Amino acid sequence: MTIELRCIKCPKTYPVNEVRYNCDCGGLLDVWHDLESLRPQINHALFDGRLRGAPTPRVNPNTNSGVWRYQEIILPTAVSNLVSRPEGNTPLYEHPRLSTWVGANNFFLKHEGENPTGSFKDRGMTVGVTQAKLMGSRAVACASTGNTSASLAAYAALAGIPAFIFIPSGKISSGKLAQALAYGAQTLQIEGDFDDAMNLVQEVCNNMGIYLLNSLNPFRLEGQKSIPLEIVQGLQWQPPDWIVFPAGNLGNTSAFGKALYEAQQLGLIDKVPRLAAIQAAGASPFYQSYQTNFAEHKTVKAETIATAIQIGNPVSYPRAIRALQWTNGLVTSVTDQEIMDAKAMVDQVGIGCEPASAASVAGTRQLIARGIIKPEETVVSILTGHLLKDPTSTVDYHTGGWPNAQFANPPIKLEATLEAVQRVIGKKL
How far apart (Å, rounded) are the C-alpha atoms in residues 350 and 246? Predict the structure, then answer.
């Protein structure tokens, strides 16, 4: 066995070329690697050598992609089969003004908004669409609040596979919808919210033999495992104390926990960072469940400015619980006000992000204020999407469309005269 699909609820396994997202018992599936046989061949030198690989005039996913660099523990297949732009290799930023505001001495931002379509979803989609291609899928589909649709549309176009995207009525930013339309996906606007679209796309895929590429799909999560792998490699294989990230459908929560578990089993890291999953207060079913120690599986009618995590019934719930167990992780929530103020701070230091990304920064600040994260600990917060993914919320914040915008930077109206301009500029200098 190299890889297989394994149920997280019962011992049953399935071949990886079988199209399924759940076990017969109803449990979610993992792509499971034979870690015992991989252990002799996986080491720091293997991945570091690819990172320093010689540049070539063409895309070589094993060296150019921050996903396929780790191919042995993602999806083993011939390089010629890979659908890659390439993705990953995103930077770790640090800025003293932002670190001071957050309250951490060693605070980094992993900016996944610098992927090809502007979000972390490209890491999962390169693997999901590659698997669709390997299985000869006639079409692919997803439900999306925006980032997934943009990514699926791009990678399906690259692979030459028809794509169908189910979006909720309203609550999708034009920056994300524009990508789905431009890349040629057939976009279906469904009456209802994301959870309604998610239920419908699953029915359609099951009835019509279309390959589903939401985070219910275990191959999607294999690609997203590369984010923590890239973090620890970027820190010379010295894991941070914490990895903090926005949590919506819980795909990253699940993927990060699995990646760190496997990395420790393979000897790539000697300690496991703690995970902190941050939800928006208006879309916090996982946080509410966490507060009951998961005795109750909560669902909500989600409502938040952070539309990328506006999900009331996350599909990766059981896998996410396991991730917290593997990493001694925790869950908290932050208000939309905290999200937008944190976003303004990230934007002001020249890095920038979409609202959902800023939940990780707001969450880090909250956890430090509560004494849960210590100021001397090393923290990596994930920015999941690019600033231009949702420009409307940014403009609203700075031009009076957002209450209590304490870091607003509104445009100044003035006469078209030299004196008026000099007066304004003089106050700034």
Answer: 20
Q: What are phi and psi of 243, to 5 degrees?
A: -120, 120
pLDDT tens digits along 121-179 = 999 999 999 999 999 999 999 998 788 999 999 999 999 999 999 988 766 777 778 89
Classify burial at 1, counting beta carbons within 10 Å of its beta carbon; exposed 0-12, middle 13-18, buried 19 or more.
Answer: exposed
**Crossing angle of the two packed helices 251-265 and 226-234, in degrees rounded to 10:** 50
Q: What is the pLDDT of residues 370-394, one digit of tens each?
A: 999 999 999 999 999 999 988 999 9
The per-residue pLDDT for range 247-264, each reduced to its tens digit, is: 999 999 999 999 999 999
pTM of the model: 0.94
The pLDDT, as a whole number, for residue 59 is 66
CA distance 266 to 19: 28
Please state, in angstroms and rounded to a whole number, the distance separating the CA atoms of residues 14 and 367.
41
| Separation between Cα atoms, residue 427 and residue 429, nearest integer Å | 6
Residues across the chain: 429
**How many CB atoms sit inside 10 A of residue 401's CB?**
12
The CA-atom distances, in angstroms, between 42 and each of 2, 134, 235, 383 are 14, 24, 18, 28
Tell me how far apart the alpha carbons of residues 366 and 294 are, in angstroms, rounded to a whole number: 22
CA distance 416 to 423: 12
CATH of domain 92-117+220-398: 3.40.50.1100
Provide φ and ψ at 135, rounded to 5°.
-90, 0
Q: What is the DSSP string of 67-125?
A: TGGGGGGT----GGG---S------EE--HHHHHHHT-SEEEEEEGGGSTTSBTHHHHH
> Domain residue spans in the chain?
92-117+220-398
Strands 106-111 and 378-383: parallel
Beta strand 29-33 pairing with 3-7: antiparallel
Tell me if the bond preceding 411 is cis, omega within 30° of 0: no
**Residues 164 and 185 sit within 8 Å (Cβ to Cβ):** yes
Are 64 and 51 a contacting pair, CB within 8 Å?
no
